[in-house]
Specification:
Radius of gyration of chain B: 16 Å
Number of domains of chain A: 1
Distance between the termini of chain A: 74 Å
CATH architecture of chain B: Up-down Bundle
Radius of gyration of chain A: 22 Å
CATH class of chain B: Mainly Alpha
Largest sheet of chain B: none
CATH class of chain A: Mainly Alpha
Helix content of chain B: over 70%
Number of helices of chain B: 4
CATH superfamily of chain A: Fumarate reductase/succinate dehydrogenase, transmembrane subunit
Number of strands of chain B: 0
Mean pLDDT of chain A: 90
Number of strands of chain A: 0
CATH superfamily of chain B: Fumarate reductase/succinate dehydrogenase, transmembrane subunit
CATH topology of chain A: 3 helical TM bundles of succinate and fumarate reductases
Largest interface: A-B, 33 and 33 residues
Oligomer: heterodimer
Number of helices of chain A: 4
Distance between the termini of chain B: 36 Å
Order of helices and strands of chain B: HHHH
Helix content of chain A: over 70%
Structural class of chain A: mainly alpha
């Protein structure tokens, strides 16, 4: 026998525990988030330049601060944010030119951006450790 | 300008990251030598100009989208603009001091 509709236990909508943000939406919000991270990173960049200008002691102090474990975690996050924001920004520039709007292309280029930013972050850090 | 600075920042940030990977852990003398090369100093100044302008424009969009009370929005917009100009000035001055200093 069928239950009356109101008695059935149905998922509420949106069913937040299983709802997944579609990939393009996730990438879009990430573009903003990484942009904000990079704006914070521009503070560190300025601090580093000012330390170079201030002299050897100030630079050594800045390097110790940025080379500490929290400093490295922060720099790693900034590196990834930069490559992601760069890659996704290039994607936006292509869209501005009217290229790559098909849904399948949007998905593919999004995956390319994520994979490329992971690889480039790894390469930059590997080189950074090799070159010190 | 958001697009134009974005286009400028594509080569500039790739160059900057590659350079910082190479020179970031170097001692003061080597870092100064690097900045004293005219091409490097000019590239750094261009990066600073494009970067802070781009950052300010991007933060403006984020603030306009997420900060709704008019007073807070205006305060945040003014603060980011002033901060962007101040940081760009400090960064550019630092480059010039190193590049042109004796």
């Amino acid at each position: 026998m069928r239950q009356p509709i109101m008695d059935r236990t149905r998922p509420l909508s949106p069913h937040l525990q299983v709802y997944r943000l579609p990939l393009p939406a996730l990438l879009s919000i990430s573009h903003r988030a990484t942009g904000v991270v990079l704006a914070a990173g521009s503070l560190l960049f300025t601090y580093w330049l000012a330390a170079v200008a201030a002299g050897p002691e100030a630079l050594a102090h800045a390097q110790a601060l940025l080379g500490s474990i929290p400093g490295r975690v922060l720099l790693f996050a900034i590196t990834f944010s930069l490559f992601y924001h760069l890659g996704n920004g290039i994607r936006h520039l292509f869209w501005d030119a009217g290229i790559g709007f098909e849904l399948s292309t949007v998905h593919k280029s999004g995956i390319v951006v994520v994979v490329a930013s992971v690889i480039l972050t790894g390469v930059a850090w590997a080189l950074g450790y090799v070159m010190r | 300008m958001q697009r134009i600075t974005a286009i400028a920042l594509v080569p500039l940030t790739v160059w900057l990251v590659a350079s910082l990977v190479a020179v970031g852990a170097a001692d003061h003398a080597r870092t100064v030598d690097w900045i004293r090369s005219p091409a490097v100093a000019i590239a750094l100044l261009l990066t600073i100009a494009a970067l802070f302008h781009h950052a300010q424009l991007g933060l403006q969009v984020v603030i306009e989208d997420y900060v709704h009370p008019e007073g807070a929005k205006l305060a945040a917009l003014i603060a980011t603009k002033l901060l962007a100009v101040a940081l760009a000035t400090i960064a550019a001055f630092s480059v010039l001091k190193v590049a042109l200093g004796s």
